[in-house]
Design a protein that fits this description.
Residues 341-357 have a biased composition (Low complexity). The protein has 459 residues and is mainly α. It has a domain at 165-328 and 385-452. It contains 15 helices and four strands. It starts with a helix and ends in a 7-residue tail after the last helix.
Length: 459
Amino acid sequence: MGSLVSCVATGLGFCFCSACSSLLGACCGNDKPSTVPPSVTSGRKRSVFLLVIALGLALAFQYGVAPWLVDNEDFTGFIAENWLEGCEQYDSVELRESCAGNQGVYRVSASAVVFFCLAAIVVVAKPTFNREVWPAKYVLFLFLCAATIFIPNEPLFSDVFLNVGRVGGAAFICLQQLIVIDMAYAWNDSWVAKADTAESEEMGSGRKWLGAILTSAFCMFAGAIGGIAVLFIHFTGCTSNDAFIIVTIIMMVLITAAQLSGEEGNLLSSAAVSLWAVFLCYTAVAKNPDESCNPQYGEQDKIGVVLSIIVMGISMCWTGWSYTAEDRLTQAKSNEEPLVRESSNSNGSSRKVSGVVTGYGTSPDEEDRHEEAIDEDDEANSPKHLSNSWKLNIMLACITCWMAMALTSWGEIIGDGTAANASVGRVGMWIVISSQWLVLALYLWTLVAPRLFPDRDFS
């Protein structure tokens, strides 16, 4: 019996150690044999993993380190003096903790933004940099975070990064709209293709996929309508909030009507855009400093923070694992070699074949030739379109700015039922609602532009 338990324990220990080493290798280095170079997506996934680390550090700084510094200000000396600079003006302990927590988020977020901006610059000169030396990159990022602890709040964090974060967060909201539309279109196309395949195999079997599309669209529309009802119940009573909610309803009706009246777009995309618009409207009205129409005034918007983190997680998954994201973020210019080519196999069927660029769908012979070429001279054979990976780093910098603004309510100092800087909440409100109007107008334009200019190609 003892030998049996020992054998089982040994096997489990071996599996556990192998899994841990594989996971560490996938996160910090190449997850393939040394003879196989890392794929393009390995850089994207590790960038997303670094952003996950940044989110964890930001939450730790905001809800762990900052309150501890406020409670032990007399014992932390120089660090507390820098971290709490500007926060001593608040009488309430809760307001000081809110201020210190915001400064902690700014420190981590600023480090991540600097890291991704530097990576964007370097990758233009060295296209393969985005997928190399990741252990050193993680160390550099952690060093930047540690260095910010000793930097005073003003003006670098309280003023400069706060405004940079607002601009970057607003840019991400617009970018997020493209992600939502892209995901909705890809989702719709995937299920339509499955419906066609099922229908070709058995008459009537494709209806379940079409029904799933309609059900998903109905659920998202129901969520959007339910969100509008919540906004009407809790956030009406002042001119600005009423106007925001009414404009959101009008735009939802317009984009749905435009989609149903033509062949452009699809119902699933319109439903996803409508649900996203309602979320942005909620984010805006929840920042209104007018107490008469904002029941959450002066309190931490925990629901908004959770929803924002979920949105951020979806964006990170799209950035790191979506094949359409690879085309958007790393594709070459139109005059360069296409990323994906169609090739016919021995059976005459068509399949997608990509070259050295991605490693997806490459035939065995081509893969061997490409691996040999890369082993001989990786720099000489690196595809030109990798130089466009700077787009990935800029997008991740914008996601970081969104993270900072979501965790800090766009820079508000709130607590004890009051907002110490109500004007900041008003600025955040207008930034979010303006971004919502912009993205709704852009989506509406994608639906009506092909009708207004039929001689142009909008594909």
